[in-house]
Amino acid sequence: MSTTALNAAAMGAGAPAPLLAVHELRVSYAVRHAGRLVRARALDGVSFDLERAGSLGIVGESGSGKSTLARALLRLIPAEAGTVRLRELDLLALRGAQLRRARRHVQMVFQDGVAALDPRQRIGQALEEPLEALRPEMSGSQRRARVHSVLARVGLEPAHLERYPHQLSGGQAQRIGIARALMIEPEILVCDEPLSSLDVSIKAQITALLQQLKAELQLSLIFIAHDLPAVQRLCDRVLVLYLGRVMELAPSDVLFRAPRHPYTRALLQAVPVPDPRIARTRRITPLSGEIPSSLAPPSGCVFRTRCPLAVARCAQEVPLLRHLGGSEVACHRAEEL
């Protein structure tokens, strides 16, 4: 049974409706290839739900569509099909003032904290800007009080307000990015690889900060990352993307304990183990080859060209998400894992 069908059945049984419901989201780009314009499919029918105060990790290799998904959810790039429902609102259908009001509920933390800030603005100005745009009823003193409150919550000092972005460390810039996203009290925080440019110790600090903020503010979190241990620590559920399609969707404890898709298993096997004795005994089968081009994705299962379990059926038939052992998995041979 698909995610949508499972959710419909649960809602019929009296379960609360999700805060965010994404259904069959599709995004493609027009690119010039071999002298003509063609469409490159970046997302191909992605569906998932996010509960209030829930957390969803999104993982996959570079080129799998993770950042495209984040930007499509916030209307930073256009989607060509599908729905993104925030309660009763279809975010993809909103325009003008309606869309601006909806942005108060969903905010984003970008990968590069420094690049996401205007180099000409002091940090205090950058933090007040969302309030000026989306909370125009607030007075100047109220905005400044809010800035100081959120700055303290992310672990920074008032002195940081007078600095410019280039005067911040990577960890400080990412804390500012989180503070800016929190400024208008959103319900959903979309974090697009916020750890990728940070040192190991700073990654641990930012992960702990997000975990603390999620608990204290009852935030719903979409956390996109290559750092699978951080995903395991932060997220209730995990969605695995490959070439714009969902390979697996499962509760975090289920996915990390018993992955059902060969791609998920390969990703988990690639995570380094700090104990050299354990590392020497691990049996790792690394993925061969590169992720295919979205201009010419493989027929059938898009993962089949790199999959050790691929058979003729995999080239002929697109595997649909189906319920298996607590997971939803798109693989014809998932029972064999």
Structural account:
- The protein is α/β, with parallel strands linked by helices and 337 residues long.
- The chain has one domain (3-105, 186-336): Rossmann fold.
- The protein has helices at 3-12, 66-73, 96-102, 123-134, 140-153, 170-182, 200-217, 228-234, 252-257, 262-269, 276-281, 312-316, and strands spanning 20-33, 36-50, 55-59, 81-86, 89-90, 106-109, 188-192, 220-224, 237-242, 245-251, 322-324, 327-329.
- The chain has an 8-stranded mixed beta sheet with strand order 6-7-8-3-9-10-12-11, sandwiched between helices. The protein has a 4-stranded antiparallel beta sheet with strand order 2-1-4-5, sandwiched between helices.
- A hairpin with a 2-residue loop joins strand 1 and strand 2 (36-50).
- Helix 4 packs parallel to helix 6 (170-182), helix 5 crosses helix 6 and helix 6 packs parallel to helix 7.
- The longest helix is centred in the middle third of the chain and has 18 residues, at 200-217.
- The chain is globular.
- Mean pLDDT is 91; it is low at 1-12.
Strand order of the largest sheet: 6-7-8-3-9-10-12-11
How much of the residues is beta strand, in percent? 15-25%
- Distance between the amino and carboxyl termini: 20 Å
Globular, elongated, flat, extended or rod-shaped: what is the shape?
A: globular
DSSP helix count?
12
The number of strands is 12
**Would you identify the regions where 5 or more consecutive residues have pLDDT less than 50?**
1-12
CATH superfamily, by name, is P-loop containing nucleotide triphosphate hydrolases
Structural domain tally: 1
CATH class: Alpha Beta
Report the structural category.
Answer: alpha/beta
- CATH architecture heading: 3-Layer(aba) Sandwich
What is the string of SSEs from the N terminus onward? HEEEHEEHEHHHEHEHEEHHHHEE
How big is the Rg? 21 Å
